[in-house]
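Why show two proteins at once? Because comparison is the fastest way to build intuition. When a single record is shown, students tend to memorize it. When two are placed side by side, the eye starts asking what differs. So, the first record is below.
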Amino acid sequence: MIIIATLGFDERPVVRSLAEAGFRGVDKIVLIRPIDDDQRAVKAVSEIKKIASMAGLSDEDIISYRVDVHDFWGSTSMIYSLFLENLREESFIVLCLGGGLRALVLEAYTAFILLPHYLRKKIRVRIDLETGRDSIVIGGEEFIIDLGRLDKEYMVLKVVKENPGINLSTLSYKIGKPVSTTHRLLKRLVEKGFLEKKDGQYYLTGAGGAFLKIKRLLEKVV
């Protein structure tokens, strides 16, 4: 089992996850940390290593994975890659959401729910309530979002990325779909925040770029 945990500055959620696992069967702990954390985080990592040693883990088994929390979709894409990488080598992951930095928690949670169902069901999410006692535990199989089915949207986003400022008729021609169908797809993608429309022309947003990157990552493991 691998524990993947967000860590701003509070080590307690990770320690509780270790305790719930009975300090057994944990092979690795991956700490998702901001690139610009402070001394509190350094101290938290030290405490985690100290407690993890009781579970037979060495310092090399505690890995820090750095992301820029100010770049929401960039961080989300990186964390998505982290999930895929670790799911290749381990059949079960505990995702520990807490640690004192809400932006980091949200980015990790977003990356999690964007995973396809067959991968999400290999992850158990533990959400720390910051009360010092309780937590919410959710099985990944409870989520139903599936990016693997959004093939038409993916095709539209790819063409828009390659042709920024493209209009409806040109896009319709390039994807080989009727104008009415293309218009519905564009409207949906604008509403979802994946595309931006300016004077009848369409541009990829940060969210749209992340969607494309995540789909490409997913194609490598399907």
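Second record. Ask yourself what differs from the first in the token line.
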Amino acid sequence: MIKLLIFDVDGCLTDGSIIYGGTNDEYKAFNVKDGLAIASWSRLGFKSAIITGRNSKVVERRAKELHITHLHQGIKDKKAMLEEILKKENLTWENVAAIGDDLNDYNMLKSVGWSFSPNDGVDLIKKNVTTVLNTCGGKGAVREMIDLIIKKEELEERFLKLWQ
């Protein structure tokens, strides 16, 4: 059973755009549907993590808003970081679903129980994941991922009850 979701940020939770302001400000656009699904996943009692290669205060803020269990930024070896999380949470690779869109996600994606790429992920990643999503990064790809997991794990009734 999937118990932990792993998200890459740029290209998955966002469309990959990075906008810089005049005073070292950084801006990213997040999809509200992704956010609602992540928050609902947490409300179901499951865990999630962001593992990203960049560092950003915006990502830190978003992770807090969505009650994401683990936030790891500036990570070069995402698989090794995920291995540490698995030990802390007493989970196995089969308990993990992850989404990534580019080569720095490859080793992590090849190791997890269910791997995803947004539709606009790079070709080498799309060829090596379990599921290529119909949706592009930052446009609801994470929501599509979570909806597929909810359906496969037969959690739809519990998911809906969160909103009744």
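One difference worth noting in the second protein: The two ends are 25 Å apart (CA to CA).
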